[in-house]
Design brief:
Layout: E1 2-7, H1 14-28, E2 32-37, H2 41-49, E3 55-56, H3 67-78, E4 82-86, H4 87-93, E5 100-105, E6 119-122, H5 125-133, E7 141-143, H6 159-162, E8 170-174, H7 183-190, E9 197-201, H8 207-216, E10 223-227, H9 232-237, E11 241-244, H10 253-261, E12 265-268, H11 271-276, E13 284-286, H12 291-304, H13 307-321, H14 323-337
Helix pairs in contact: 7-12, 10-13
């Protein structure tokens, strides 16, 4: 199969990183893949290192007259049989042609941007349901999940570098420092989990507010803002518990990563975690914006160890969210819809 992969995303982000993983995974599985991307240097370097040769386009705003025809020329010269447009901007600029055009959604994006698409893919069942509820034909929308790396054999990150004592329980959170992630609630929850340390790995506009909150709660010795980190696997392997406190989270790749690492999960019941987690089986769900409930759940899992939940999460990962499983599902789907 000859597959075009269209991405206009930012340098960092869950969808962008999964785009890279899937593009490389399809290539390594033997498919011919052409990435047509906004030329973010690190992404270009990673794709080239994997043996791919991306085409760089501007992917500007609505008045950008050049991206769509240039993408069309690139896909036509490549001989694409199917093209996948990732998120709204790439879908808006995606050209129609002799190929099947698939829009891939990792959130509840306005479908007006996907009007040129023949088919849509959602990475959660709730997104697929929502797409159909907007009037999109149900026989032209499919569920295909994300995959994440296998972290079981990865060495843990250095606790000394993180500022966490070797004998202290380590609670890990990951994500952009933005109000939607609910890190303010998580920090307040840690006030009543004595002895445990919280590491939040991420960067963003909420850092000053979170630093002020940490100081006002007198948690400077136990709550650590670690900045942007790329070593997600080692961080998870160093933790006793992963927490997702998001107020809104369409999927929650980080829950899948915790499943992979064999780390128990406590999550606020946003859309994605609510779909992924069976409460009390492979994780614990709590109400959104409930610091007291979150604190109780953290304390309980740390006290009990959470080994059974971690094992159940690892089983879910192996059966549903491992790379071979998901790449095979994508290949089967694209073969069915390709022209």
């Amino acid at each position: 199969m000859r597959i075009g992969q269209l991405m206009a995303g930012a340098a960092q982000g869950g969808a962008e990183l999964f785009f890279e993983r899937l593009t490389i995974g399809l290539h390594e599985a033997g498919e011919a893949v052409l990435p047509v991307i906004r030329p973010e240097p690190a992404r270009v370097a990673r794709l080239r290192a994997a043996g791919l040769e991306p085409v760089g386009l501007r992917y500007g705003g609505p008045l950008d007259p050049l991206t769509r025809p240039r993408a069309a020329r690139a896909l036509h010269a490549f001989g694409a049989e199917v093209a996948v447009a990732w998120m709204s901007r790439a879908a808006f600029h995606a050209p129609r042609g002799s190929w099947t055009l698939v829009g891939r959604l990792g959130g509840y994006y306005p479908l007006k941007y996907f009007r040129r698409c023949d088919h849509l893919v959602g990475n959660t069942r709730d997104i697929v349901r929502w797409i159909a509820d907007q009037g999109w034909p149900a026989d032209r929308v499919a569920y295909l999940p994300n995959f994440v790396g296998d972290f079981t054999s990865i060495a843990p990150a250095s606790r000394a570098v993180l500022g966490v004592p070797d004998d202290a329980p380590l609670v890990l959170a990951l994500g952009r420092l933005h109000a939607v992630k609910g890190f303010d609630i998580l920090i307040r929850a840690m006030e009543t989990v004595p002895g445990a340390h919280l590491v939040i790995a991420g960067e963003g506009p909420e850092r000053p507010a979170l630093e002020a909150l940490i100081a006002s709660c007198r948690l400077g010795a136990r709550v650590h803002l670690a900045g942007w980190r790329t070593d997600v696997g080692p961080l998870l392997r160093s933790a006793q518990l992963f927490v997702s406190s998001s107020r809104h989270e369409p999927l929650g790749n980080m829950v899948l990563e915790a499943f992979s690492a064999g780390v128990p999960v406590v999550a606020a019941a946003a859309e994605g975690p609510r779909e992924l987690i069976t409460d009390g089986v492979d994780g614990v769900l709590v109400s959104i914006d409930d610091p007291a409930g979150l604190s109780r759940a953290i304390a309980r899992v740390l006290a009990e160890g959470g080994q059974a939940m971690a094992a159940a999460g690892r089983t879910r990962y192996a059966g549903e969210f491992a790379e071979p499983v998901v790449v095979a599902a994508w290949r089967d789907y694209l073969a069915r819809v390709a022209r």
